C-alpha cells in the first residue's frame, strides 16, 4: 500500500476536538489549582509533590512531540531495532538521572533551578551560562512542539499549519499562565493517563487491522538486512548512540527535568523516576513500532516527510473514532511538554535573571510573579514565530542534546568535587562548545591528525558517559575504572572510524573536551569549596 490518502476531520469536528481538549484542560487546572500568589509554589510547588503526580508529570514531560514523530521515524528508518533504540535509551536516562537529583536536593533543598545551585557554587557567570542554555533549549522545545501540532492539524484537518500552531500555543498558555508549575503537573497527570489508555488501545488496533503477524512477516521481503537486524550496527551508530548521549545531557541540563527533581518530595525521587522510566519506555517503544509496521507494509512517507508517518498509518488502518483518539493523544503529549517548557522558562527568568542578578537583595515577590507570567506570554509568541520555519525534529533534538553535553561533567563535578572552580567550569563549557560546533558544522575537514585527535577526545567522552552512569549508582573508584576501560576500548575502535559519523563524533567530543578541560583547570587551583555554603545561600523566596 503506497501513499494512503489522509483521513480529514471536518472543520467543526476539528474545533470540537481542539477546543474541547484545551477547554477541559483549562477547567481541570482551574478547579485543581488556584491562581498562585506564592513564587515558590508557582515554580516548584514548594517541593511537596507526591508520588503519583510526580511520576506522571515526569513521564508526560519526557514524552513530547519528538517522542511521537522521532520514534516512528526511527522505527521506519532502522526497522526492528529503531523503536528500541529510541524508547529504551530515553527510558534509561530517566533512571540514571535520579541519583544526581538526590544529590542536588541534598545540597539545596530549597532550590528552584539547577542554575541557582551553580550560582551558589561558582557565581553569576556559571549560573547565566546554564540559564541561557536552558532559555534557548526550552524555546526550541516549544517551537518543536508547536511545529508538531501544526503539522498534525494540517494533514488531518482542513485547517492550515499556522492555525494549528496558533491554537496549540494559545491553548497551552491559557491553562499554564496563572497557576504555573502546579497547573503543569496536574494536567500532566490527566494527560499521561489518557496517553497510556490510548496507546494500549490504538497500537494493537493498528497491528490487527494491518493483518497481524502474517502480514508483517511478508514485509521481511522488502526491507534491508540492516533493518531486519535487531542489533544493527548502522542503527546503533546513527540513531542509538547519538540519542543515548543526547538524552543524558537533556536529563542533567534541562530545567524541565530539574524542576521536577526540585518539586517532588525528596523521599519520593527514586520511586517517581523509576516509575517514569517504565512508563516512558513502554509508551515510546510502542509508538516506534507504528513506524516499523509502516515499513513492513511498504508505506512511503507522504512528500518524503517522516513526520507524516503516524497520520498516514492512522488514516490507512484506523476508523474515524480511533483517529480522533490518536489526534488527541499527540496533541496531549506535545502540550504536556510545552506547558513544562513555559514553567521552566518562567522559573529561570524569575530566579536566575531577576532574583539572583537584577533584584539582588531587594526581591519583590509580586513583581517576580508578574515577570514569570510575562515570560510565558513572550515565550509562547516566540515559539509560535519560530514554529513557522518547520525545522526537522530529530536534527533539533540531537543538536540541543549535544549542546547541553558540554555542561554535564562540569555541573556534576561541581556538586561532588570541591576543587572545581568557576574558571574551570567556564573554560570547560566554552571549550567543549567550540569543538562541538567545529565538528557538527564541519568547520574543518575531518582528515588526518585533526580527525584522529577528535576521535581520541570522543573516546574520552564515551568513557565519561559510562563513568558518570556508574558513579550515580556506585562510587568514584568503580566509576573511574569503568570509564577508563570504556575510554580505552573507544580509543581503539574509534580510530579512523568515527569520523564518518559526525553526529555521534560531535556529541562525544562535547563530553570529552569539557571533561578534560574542567579536570585540568581544576587541578591547577588549590581552592577548596565548602558545600554547606550552597544550603545557606539558597532560601525560599516566600520567606
From TrEMBL:
Subcellular localization: Cell membrane
One of the GO BP terms on file: sodium ion transport
Keywords attached to this entry: Cell membrane, Ion transport, Membrane, Sodium, Sodium transport, Symport, Transmembrane, Transmembrane helix, Transport
Alphabetical list of Pfam families matching this protein: SSF
PROSITE patterns per UniProt: NA_SOLUT_SYMP_3
Catalytic activity: L-proline(in) + Na(+)(in) = L-proline(out) + Na(+)(out)
CDD domains in UniProt: SLC5sbd_DUR3
Stored InterPro entries: Na/Glc_symporter_sf (IPR038377), Na/solute_symporter (IPR001734), Sodium:Solute_Symporter (IPR050277)
Residues spanning the membrane: 6-31, 43-64, 84-101, 128-153, 159-178, 185-207, 273-296, 316-334, 368-387, 393-417, 424-443, 449-471, 478-495, 501-523
Entry GO MF terms: symporter activity
Topology in the lipid bilayer: Multi-pass membrane protein
Top-level taxonomic group: Bacteria
GO cellular component, one term: plasma membrane
Main location as per UniProt: membrane
Family note: Belongs to the sodium:solute symporter (SSF) (TC 2.A.21) family.
Protein name per UniProt: Na+/solute symporter
Annotated source species: Colwellia psychrerythraea
Amino acid at each position: 500500500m503506497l501513499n494512503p490518502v489522509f483521513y480529514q476531520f471536518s472543520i467543526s469536528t476539528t474545533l470540537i476536538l481542539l477546543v474541547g481538549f484545551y477547554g477541559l484542560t483549562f477547567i481541570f487546572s482551574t478547579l485543581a489549582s488556584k491562581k498562585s500568589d506564592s513564587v515558590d509554589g508557582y515554580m516548584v510547588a514548594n517541593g511537596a509533590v507526591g508520588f503519583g503526580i510526580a511520576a506522571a508529570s515526569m513521564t508526560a514531560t519526557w514524552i513530547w512531540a519528538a517522542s511521537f514523530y522521532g520514534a516512528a521515524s526511527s522505527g521506519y528508518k532502522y526497522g526492528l531495532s529503531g523503536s528500541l533504540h529510541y524508547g529504551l535509551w530515553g527510558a534509561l536516562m530517566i533512571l540514571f538521572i535520579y541519583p544526581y537529583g538526590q544529590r542536588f536536593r541534598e545540597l539545596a533543598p530549597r532550590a528552584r533551578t539547577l542554575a541557582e545551585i551553580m550560582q551558589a557554587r561558582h557565581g553569576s557567570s556559571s549560573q547565566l551560562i546554564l540559564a541561557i542554555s536552558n532559555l534557548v533549549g526550552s524555546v526550541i522545545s516549544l517551537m518543536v512542539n508547536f511545529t508538531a501540532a501544526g503539522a498534525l492539524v494540517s494533514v488531518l484537518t482542513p485547517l492550515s499549519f499556522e492555525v494549528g500552531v496558533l491554537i496549540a500555543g494559545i491553548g497551552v498558555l491559557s491553562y499554564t499562565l496563572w497557576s504555573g508549575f502546579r497547573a503543569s503537573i496536574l494536567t500532566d497527570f490527566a494527560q499521561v493517563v489518557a496517553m497510556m489508555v490510548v496507546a494500549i488501545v490504538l497500537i494493537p488496533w493498528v497491528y490487527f487491522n494491518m493483518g497481524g503477524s502474517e502480514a508483517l512477516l511478508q514485509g521481511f521481503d522488502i526491507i534491508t538486512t540492516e533493518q531486519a537486524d535487531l542489533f544493527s550496527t548502522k542503527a546503533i551508530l546513527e540513531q542509538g548512540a547519538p540519542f543515548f548521549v543526547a538524552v543524558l545531557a537533556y536529563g542533567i541540563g534541562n530545567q524541565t527535568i530539574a524542576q521536577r527533581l526540585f518539586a517532588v518530595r525528596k523521599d519520593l525521587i527514586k520511586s517517581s523516576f523509576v516509575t517514569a522510566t517504565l512508563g516512558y519506555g513502554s509508551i515510546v517503544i510502542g509508538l516506534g513500532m507504528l513506524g516499523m509496521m509502516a515499513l513492513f507494509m511498504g508505506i512511503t512517507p507522504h512528500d518524503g516527510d517522516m513526520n507524516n508517518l503516524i497520520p498516514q498509518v492512522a488514516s490507512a488502518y484506523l476508523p474515524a473514532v480511533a483517529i480522533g483518539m490518536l489526534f488527541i493523544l499527540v496533541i496531549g503529549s506535545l502540550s504536556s511538554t510545552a506547558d513544562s517548557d513555559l514553567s521552566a522558562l518562567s522559573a529561570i527568568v524569575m530566579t536566575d535573571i531577576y532574583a539572583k542578578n537584577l533584584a539582588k537583595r531587594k526581591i519583590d515577590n509580586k513583581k517576580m510573579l508578574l515577570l514569570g507570567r510575562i515570560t510565558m506570554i513572550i515565550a509562547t509568541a516566540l515559539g509560535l514565530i519560530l514554529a513557522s520555519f518547520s525545522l526537522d525534529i530529530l536534527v533539533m533534538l540531537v543538536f540541543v542534546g549535544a549542546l547541553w553535553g558540554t555542561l554535564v561533567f562540569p555541573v556534576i563535578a561541581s556538586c561532588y568535587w570541591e576543587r572545581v572552580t568557576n574558571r574551570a567550569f567556564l573554560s570547560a563549557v566554552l571549550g567543549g562548545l567550540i569543538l562541538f560546533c567545529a565538528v557538527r558544522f564541519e568547520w574543518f575537514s575531518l582528515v588526518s591528525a585533526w580527525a584522529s585527535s577528535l576521535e581520541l577526545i570522543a573516546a574520552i567522552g564515551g568513557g565519561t558517559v559510562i563513568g558518570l552512569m556508574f558513579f550515580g549508582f556506585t562510587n568514584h573508584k568503580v566509576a573511574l575504572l569503568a570509564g577508563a576501560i570504556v575510554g580505552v576500548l573507544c580509543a581503539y575502535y574509534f580510530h579512523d572510524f568515527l569520523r564518518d559519523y559526525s553526529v555521534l563524533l560531535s556529541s562525544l567530543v562535547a563530553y570529552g573536551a569539557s571533561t578534560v578541560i574542567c579536570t585540568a583547570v581544576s587541578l591547577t587551583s588549590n581552592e577548596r569549596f565548602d558545600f554547606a555554603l550552597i544550603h545557606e545561600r539558597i532560601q525560599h523566596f516566600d520567606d
